[in-house]
Amino acid sequence: MSMIEIENLSAFYGKAQALRNVSLRVEPGETIAIVGANGAGKSTLLDSIMGLVKNTGTIRMEGQDVTGAKPGDMVRRGVGYAPERFNLFPHMTVRDNLLVGAYTAREDIDKNMDAVHRLFPRLAEREGQETSTQSGGERQMVSLGRALMTSPRILLVDEPTIGLAPKVCVEIAEVLRRLSAEMGLTVIVTEQNANFALSLASRLYVLEGGHVTAEGTAVELAKDDQLAKSYFGA
Amino acid sequence: MMQIIIQGMLLSGLYALIAMGFMLIFSIGRTLNLAYGAYIMVGGYIYFWLSQQLGMPKIVGFGGAVAVGALMGLLKHRLIVKPLKGDPVAVEISTLILAVIMQSAMVLAFGDASKILLPLIPGVVTVAGAQVTYNILAATIMSWVIILALYAFVRGTHTGRAMQAVSMDEKGAAISGVDPDRINMITWAISGGLGAAGGVFFASYTQLSPSMWVAPVIISVAIVIVGGIGSIIGTLIVAHIIGFLEITVVAVLAPELRGVFTMVLIIGVLIMRPQGLFGREEH
């Protein structure tokens, strides 16, 4: 049974259609990547899974229909989300940001906080710092940490490397690999940087203009000359 | 001098109590709730009705006032603010209209003549030569207790942190499992209850009348603008600045100028530090 299975998902912002009949699936413990340019609909896709955007189609989680579920329901079902713009609470400390993430997982606070601090020791060192005064890389860590505080079984990560220094990108990639390998999390990551996505994901979906134009493993996608040229720098 | 210090402390405590609920809605619900004065007025009238007209114990009257204030807050959020979400001007106009409607309702129910509200705690004590009623002393103490409890609640509980989170980033709160709608409802209920509690003391400090809602709204707006969004401590400090300013002006200059310097302070802060003395710049 797939962890998440999406069929014919279309999403709208008012009258504007941002996703068109998108279908995809991710298996338990798998990491998949959604690759696409700016405006392709990557963030809308993750927002739709979280119940943040009006949509049509079907979203199933472990076989159960969760179409139209509210964000709080999705979090309780085990979906954690680290959005592209972080959406942190700028005038709260790192620790308080993480504790807000524990709103629905209060019994796991100590365990999850330890896990977050092991993954991001810097957050333990700076737990009293307001996030408005942090660097982009540190905010990304808080964002991922907050998502982990929800006790997720699947993690949605929207463009984790955008605007970050290469060294920080490597750190983030390593953490995402550990989340999958050591903690068994299922991960859906969106990226403009297809090579970064390839370093993490077993399968990729290419999103263009709101619909999926290709899917497969890296090897399969590389056979398509046009795709290879557009996304993999071939 | 001692008279000014004591009266200033007492009036400031009352102002802080009145402004706290207004600040909560302004900071978390992002709404300039001009009907806030209606909680204060209705709180006073409910206390009057239960304890003076029906003869119930004063504590029941006070509890009833707080409960009705909280219910009004909940209903206002559910029936007006939520359907008009995204249109702050419509919300502000609607809340103002609601206050006028509530004023008419109080005229219908209790008449338009002012009434003397018997103090929650009767009696007078002399402190350093100054005559102080137990009632306003109780308002000051209660205001400090409520403010400290509110501070501990907002800073130290999951719901309090969620309230802060919703005020700073609603999407961030939602993806953390917080239901912003529920948090807003809790905030509106707390605000209504605080307003009604302040109303009981304010009405006994001044008098009970259907138009008594205007002055507390002006005081609350002044305190929140000068203090800045989102600061409980800022609200407390500015309530004292304004309270002392008013008492000093009345004692040293003329009672007619009581509110003038407060208005000058608002304009000055708006020009020189629009985010308020203790507020942060919004991004």
Numbering strands along the chain, what is their spatial order in the largest sheet of chain A?
Answer: 6-7-8-3-9-10
Number of strands of chain A: 10
Total strand segments of chain B: 2
Category from helices, strands and their pairing of chain A: alpha/beta
The percent of residues in helical segments of chain A reads 25-40%
The chain-level mean pLDDT of chain B equals 87
Largest sheet of chain A: 6 strands, mixed
- Number of continuous helical runs of chain B: 11
Whole-number average pLDDT of chain A? 91
Low-confidence stretches of chain A: none
Membrane topology (chain B): Multi-pass membrane protein
Transmembrane segments (chain B): 6-26, 33-50, 56-77, 89-111, 131-154, 185-205, 260-278
Subcellular location (chain B): Cell membrane
GO molecular function, one term (chain B): transmembrane transporter activity
Task: Write the SSE topology.
The complex is a heterodimer of chains A (234) and B (283).
Chain A: E1 4-13, E2 16-26, E3 31-35, H1 42-49, E4 54-61, E5 64-65, H2 71-77, E6 79-82, H3 94-101, H4 109-119, H5 121-125, H6 136-148, E7 154-158, H7 166-181, E8 186-191, H8 194-200, E9 203-208, E10 211-216, H9 218-222, H10 225-231
Parallel strand pairs in A: 3-8, 3-9, 6-7, 7-8
Antiparallel strand pairs in A: 1-2, 1-4, 4-5, 9-10
Helix pairs in contact in A: 3-6
Chain B: H1 2-29, H2 36-53, H3 58-81, H4 88-110, E1 124-127, E2 130-133, H5 134-156, H6 158-168, H7 170-174, H8 180-205, H9 214-227, H10 232-253, H11 260-272
Antiparallel strand pairs in B: 1-2
Family (chain A): Belongs to the ABC transporter superfamily.
Protein name (chain A): ABC transporter ATP-binding protein
GO biological process, one term (chain A): L-amino acid transport
